[in-house]
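Task: sequence design from structure.
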C-alpha cells in the first residue's frame, strides 16, 4: 500500500504548459516543492530571526536520513556555497582539481576563492577514470571536486575511482546535488575516509531552487574545518523551514522525482528514434545529446523560436551537444513535435 502522499501526487501539483515557454534548460523539479513548504512559510512570523533549535533539529533529521550523526552535517545556503567553503579552506594548502567538462560554476568559484584550478579532462565517456597514470598526475596537496551525476554529461563517478581519488588527494569533495535522480549515493565512503566530504542539496529534486539549502556530510574534524570557512554567518531561516517541510512530506517529493526520472528514460527513447540527436546515457534528470544532423546552435535557436528552451554547454568539448531537462510526458510530446518539424527543415 502506497503512502497517501504518494497516491495523491498527480492531483497535488501539475505543470501548466499554457502559462509560458518550456524551460528545459532548467534543472529544478517541474512539479515544484511540496505544498507543505508553502504552508510552513505562510504560518511562520519569525523569518527574520535565526532559530538555533531549528538548525540543530534539521541537522539531526538530515543525519538520520543519510545515516550519520548530526555532528557530521554542515548546513549551507545551497550547493555552490558548500563548494566555495571547501575552496576557501583549501586556499593555503594547494590547488583545486576540476574534471571538465563539468559545471562551469566550479571554475568561477575557484577564481572567487583565489585558488589555483588544475584541469584534468574526463575520458571520452565523460567519466573520471583514476588509474595509476592519472594518480601520478594528481597534485598530492590538491582538493579534488567531482560532481556525480555530473552536469552536463549525466555521468557518475564509481566507488573505485572515488576511493583512488581520496587516497591520492589531500581532500575530495563529491557534489551529489543531482543524486536523488540517480538512485545511488557514495555517502557511506565518508565513514572510511577522513578527507572525503559529500554535498547533497534540495535545490533540484525537491524544487527548492528559490530557497537554496544544501548540506555537507563529513567526518567531524573536516566538518568543523569547513564550517569555519562559511562566507556568511548562517543559513537563511526560510530555507531551513522549507527543508523541514520537505522532510515532513518526503514520500511525496521523492515520488515526483521518480516521475521525472521515468520521464527522462521516455525522452531518451524518443530522441534515439528521431535520428537528429543522439542521447547519451544519463543518471540525472537531464540528457546530454550530441547533434547528428545540423548543428547545436541552429537547433537550439529553432527550438527557442518554438518557445522551447534547452541548454547549450559552453565547454568547447561539447560544442555539438545540447543538454535537455526531463519534465512531464506532455513536455516530451511537445519537444518531439518540434524536433520533427526542425528535422524536416534540415537538408
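Answer:
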Amino acid at each position: 500500500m502506497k503512502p497517501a502522499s504518494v497516491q495523491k501526487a498527480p492531483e497535488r501539483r501539475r505543470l501548466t504548459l499554457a502559462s509560458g515557454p518550456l524551460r528545459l534548460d532548467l534543472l529544478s523539479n517541474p512539479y515544484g516543492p511540496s505544498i507543505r513548504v508553502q504552508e510552513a512559510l505562510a504560518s511562520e512570523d519569525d523569518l527574520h530571526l535565526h532559530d538555533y533549535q531549528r538548525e540543530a533539529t534539521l541537522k539531526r533529521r538530515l543525519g538520520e536520513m543519510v545515516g550519520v550523526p548530526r555532528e557530521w552535517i554542515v548546513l549551507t545556503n545551497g550547493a555552490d556555497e558548500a563548494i566555495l567553503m571547501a575552496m576557501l579552506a583549501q586556499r593555503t594548502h594547494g590547488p583545486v582539481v576540476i574534471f571538465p567538462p563539468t559545471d562551469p560554476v566550479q571554475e568561477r568559484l575557484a577564481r572567487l576563492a583565489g585558488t589555483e584550478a588544475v584541469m584534468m579532462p574526463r575520458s571520452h565517456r565523460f567519466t573520471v577514470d583514476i588509474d595509476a597514470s592519472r594518480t601520478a598526475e594528481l597534485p598530492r596537496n590538491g582538493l579534488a571536486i567531482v560532481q556525480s551525476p555530473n552536469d552536463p554529461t549525466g555521468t557518475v563517478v564509481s566507488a573505485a575511482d572515488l576511493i583512488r581519488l581520496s587516497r591520492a588527494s589531500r581532500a575530495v569533495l563529491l557534489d551529489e546535488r543531482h543524486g536523488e535522480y540517480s538512485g545511488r549515493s557514495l555517502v557511506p565512503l565518508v565513514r572510511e575516509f577522513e578527507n572525503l566530504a559529500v554535498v547533497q542539496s534540495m535545490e533540484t529534486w525537491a524544487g527548492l531552487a528559490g530557497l537554496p539549502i544544501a548540506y555537507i556530510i563529513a567526518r567531524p574534524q573536516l566538518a568543523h574545518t569547513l564550517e569555519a570557512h562559511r562566507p556568511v554567518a548562517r543559513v537563511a531561516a526560510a530555507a531551513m523551514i522549507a527543508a523541514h517541510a520537505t522532510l515532513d512530506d518526503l514520500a511525496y517529493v521523492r515520488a515526483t522525482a521518480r516521475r521525472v526520472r521515468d520521464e527522462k528514460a521516455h525522452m531518451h527513447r524518443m530522441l534515439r528514434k528521431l535520428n537528429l540527436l543522439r542521447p547519451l546515457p544519463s543518471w540525472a534528470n537531464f540528457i546530454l545529446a550530441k547533434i547528428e544532423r545540423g548543428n547545436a546552435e541552429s537547433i537550439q535557436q529553432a527550438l527557442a523560436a518554438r518557445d522551447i528552451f534547452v541548454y547549450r554547454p559552453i565547454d568547447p568539448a561539447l560544442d555539438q551537444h545540447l543538454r535537455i531537462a526531463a519534465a512531464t510526458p506532455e513536455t516530451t510530446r511537445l519537444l518531439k513535435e518540434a524536433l520533427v518539424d526542425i528535422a524536416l527543415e534540415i537538408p
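The mean pLDDT is 93.
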